[in-house]
């Protein structure tokens, strides 16, 4: 393609130096291609913590976890009530928002400053809020998202801003058949353009991934890995062309 033609032109001008530079950018120390893992900011559930979510996600197959670069973050507000996981997981517990507008906005700014992409109610609304120019304007576009037991915000204003158009961000949704948030989770899924949905028989939990679900999860991972690879190739191409040795 156009990229290859530009590299050929440069290699003819400086044969050895330019080609060697390209190889350094695209090959690992063992000669294999360097592929960056898709990176996710993991937002824990209501009145839990980053440490708890680490434990919950490790119910997933190692073959899934090893393909992801997972970053865990505690919410900005200390828990102000009883946690549903009290007695199951050790405290401290945290909350992303406390049902007033000021604190919810603080939570959005907190994630904004962390500069990651981001589950649940909060993350399900972020792609739309970012596209509208309301949140996360100083960080790259959210490229993909995994939502476990998600639901829409209830605030009319946030609904108008976050879900007023079909969201084209590649998304993977886990939906529990007995989850009390299931009706709201279905509404959230309907706001995404091409959602991949994994159904499980449990409630509002991080589910295990069975053999049937694994096929869907694996297909989604392959899709986002291809997106990451194409993005990296574009970056390498610009560096190879602009900075030949």
UniProtKB/TrEMBL annotation:
InterPro entries with a match to the protein in the record: AB_hydrolase_fold (IPR029058), FSH-like_dom (IPR005645)
Positions in coiled-coil regions: none
A Pfam family it matches: FSH1
Domain of life: Eukaryota
Residue ranges annotated for the Serine hydrolase domain, each copy included: 36-101, 117-210
Protein name: Serine hydrolase domain-containing protein
Organism: Brassica napus (Rape)
Lineage, uppermost ranks: Eukaryota, Viridiplantae, Streptophyta, Embryophyta, Tracheophyta
